[in-house]
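re: ur question from yesterday

yeah so i grabbed the chain u mentioned. its 252 aa long if i counted rite. heres the sequnce exactly as i have it in my notes:
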Amino acid sequence: MSEKSPILSIQDIRRDFKMGDETVHALRGVNFNIHPGEFVTIMGTSGSGKSTMLNILGCMDRPTSGHYILDGEHTEKLKRDALARIRSKKIGFVFQSYNLLNRTTAIENVELPLLYNSGVSASERRRRAIEALERVGLAERMNHLPNQLSGGQQQRVAIARALVNDPVIILADEATGNLDTRTSYEIMMIFQELNRQGKTIAFVTHEPDIATFSGRTITLRDGLIKKDVINENVQDAKAAFEALPPPEMIDD
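ran it thru and got these structure tokens back, copy pasting raw so excuse formatting
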């Protein structure tokens, strides 16, 4: 693919759901591209179509009509096994609830996506997992279980797991939704740094302050794009974090 080609292209996507005798039009003809190296926030209130859009972007659902092209592949034409391959090799997922295995150490959680890749040896799998944990500043906690980690540390493990397969895009679903403001900004520092290193990120959120850390915001309403704007004044998450009052000064 040329540098000018989008890494992700959504073309007239519609998604309808049958609810008894009625048809719900969750997405009504959505169009947008995401280019390599972009950091895009997708926003929308409940009922906007945001969750439906996320499921299609993550190849967990198919559109009723339209085209979804990811890294040159028309995903709407693919069968279930091919979609699973794309999910495991081309998309790095980060979820609000972390989705870590509770009885599995941080490094083993990060290794999980590589277990399905027969071309990666056990030693290579371990090397990549260590490298991913180092990138999120958690190398010294690699042998800890999730219940021995804070919420922010668990989310760092989840980000490392999303990185380990070197995906073409990181898809984050409300990745700061369970975290306090300080920890949220720490997590956004990691996403901004990964973006500076060239990672393409689509970040779904309902929090306007989180959207200010990205370069572009797409806002959905009633299944349509209401706004698609370049953020002219991208906020620096590190500066925003440092501007917060110290924890002991915050009233309960």
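noticed a couple things. The longest strand covers residues 22-34. also The radius of gyration is 18 Å.
anyway ttyl
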